[in-house]
Amino acid sequence: MMKICLILVLLFPLIANGLQTCEQCISSGNHYCADTKLCNSPVCLNTITVALNCPHAPNATYDDHEARTKWLPLFGAGATNEKMAQKCFDNNWPTMKLSKRILVNCSDPSPILPTTQCAMITAVDTTQRILVLSFRATVGGTQMGEEILNYFVGKKQFFDVGMIFEFFYDAYVALWNGGLSTEIRNLKYKYPDYEVWVTGHSLGAALASVGASWIVKTGLFNPNNVKVFTAGQPRTGDYNYALWHQNTFAYSFRVVHHHDIVPHVPFQYEVVDHDKMYHHRTEVWYNNDMSEGSPYQICPEADGLYCVNQQLDLSWNDHTHYFNTDLNVYGDQGCPKKN
Questions:
Q1: pLDDT value, residue 17
Q2: Mean pLDDT highest for which of 41-55, 81-95, 294-308?
Q3: What is the rounded distance in angstroms from the CA atom of residue 233 to the CA atom of residue 36?
Q4: Which of 30, 43, 104, 254 is most buried, judged by most C-beta within 10 A?
Q5: pLDDT attached to residue 320
């Protein structure tokens, strides 16, 4: 009996250590094993070393049907002109009405590059009590080149919650100063208790992440009334920003299609300044063509080795096609309703 008690005394610290939560394990300087759900498991295929990636289910429910019938037309409408944006709503969401389209110069200040523009729309549904901010994706090779070059230029402090990429920060501020600030304050005054849906694809996805965070940090809206839904989002900010975002927004989904290349950039470990960049939760990964009825995974980590980060072969075509729709033409066609 004495021997058994002695063994239990000796083993208790190991057992207790193993049964720690993921966050407790990492905060104590150890690693957590996603496979065994134990701290410092000696054999582990999926090791977690940062609290951001501790496995968690989302705080909201993802709805594939809603994604196809509501969110897809919203970022389609944000990618086109006023006339076709309203047609996107008429075809898919008749009670949603365009409020304003904002188009600004968001070029890199370099004198050798031509002017590029960023765009977004606001919209209102007084029946369902929803305000919308939808941001346009990258347009053209020049803007794409600016984004890529700026990955190596620098980042800017985002309030007190971390850093975001300079290009995304400057582009959002250009939109904010170019009419969004006045527009969103007017909408808030007219519809003070409406939900706010913020969305976008590609560059628009990064701007949606920044935009939702901005209107919360400036005190305009409570995060519990803000929903964030993005498609093909590049990494937007650093670890602190990602952690703050996912601890702030209960409803925040990043949809990723199959081998889409853009969610992999910029790299988590950047060669130039050694800054680690992360996605915030919650990734929804469709490892297929995203046709109606396709399965998807709700990823347990924010930006770990689950889901799309398992992929080595990357695709631009998957970036431009979401929910079995070619986003290059979808908005300009008035977001034709799926049969």
A1: 53
A2: 81-95
A3: 31
A4: 254
A5: 94
Amino acid code (one letter) for 186 = N
pLDDT at 151: 64
**Under 8 Å between Cβ of 84 and 334:** yes
DSSP string, 85-127: HHHHHHHH-TT-EEEEEEEEE---S-TTSPP-EEEEEEEEETT
* CATH of the domain spanning 55-333: 3.40.50.1820
Q: Are strands 47-48 and 32-33 parallel, antiparallel or unpaired?
A: antiparallel
pLDDT at res. 14:
44
Is residue 188 a contact partner of residue 219, using CB atoms and an 8 Å limit?
no
CA separation for the pair 339, 325 (Å, rounded): 13
Give the residue among 131, 64, 75, 87 at the shortest CA–CA distance from 337: 87
Q: How far apart are the C-alpha atoms of 31 and 283, rounded to whole Å?
A: 22
Strand partners, 104: 118
Tell me the whole-structure pTM to 2 decimals: 0.90
Secondary structure (DSSP) of 210-236: HHHHHHHHTTSS-GGGEEEEEESPPP-
Residue 56 · residue 41 · CB < 8 Å = no
35, pLDDT greater than 60: yes
- Confidence tier at 109 by pLDDT (50, 70, 90): low
Q: Is 209 exposed, middle or buried (0-12, 13-18, 19+ CB in 10 A)?
A: buried
The Cα 255–Cα 22 span in angstroms is: 25
Q: Are 57 and 300 in contact (CB under 8 A)?
A: yes
Task: Tell me the pLDDT band of 310, cut-offs 50, 70 and 90.
Answer: confident
Check if the beta carbon of residue 268 is closer than 8 Å to that of residue 238. no
Report the chain's mean pLDDT, rounded to a whole number.
88
- What Cα–Cα distance (Å) separates residue 156 from each residue in 1, 126, 164, 200, 324? 63, 36, 6, 21, 36
Q: Pull the structure tokens for residue 294.
A: 């396709």
